[in-house]
Amino acid sequence: MTHYLPYCESHLKQLISATSETGGAFWPSVLDVRTGRYPDGEHVPRRVYRLIGAPRGSTLYWDQPMVASAYALSQATGDPEYARAADNYVEAFLSCCVAENGMFQWGNHIYYDVREQRVASFNGGHHELRPILPAWDVFWRHAPEKPGYWPRRFADPWKTVNRLRKTRHANPPRRGHA
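and the corresponding structure tokens:
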């Protein structure tokens, strides 16, 4: 089972080394495989039809599985480097990407632009959360007061599901829109 660990370590070490461009915190969403760094210019991968790929940026929403993997890898190998990098990333996010009302500034239409050091949004900056459930335990461990908005908002999942159903039927989505 541990035969895959060197590959995981190699991947995370490359990712962590690329954070030098972001002050050692924000993980890059896109890496140039030739240089191991952020691509130069306004690169948007061909498979991405919008800015969901967070060019020049970082998007913790999509990186949550990698953050969980970093914690697990540190536990499996005894090397704290991966957990420390995950901690730095989460703490940087919590310090830069939480709105005044407590809402995390993340999702399919919003990311952190590492070059401009600000939250960047497109298509209205909607906070679409799909398909990843937030890793609340990670956020509560770092800043118990910050991740309060969404868990309270969705404390009663059936009420939320019913509200979403009513909205969906009142405003059916356009065909072809993801």
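(Above: one complete record from the training split.) The first strand starts at residue 57 and ends at 58.
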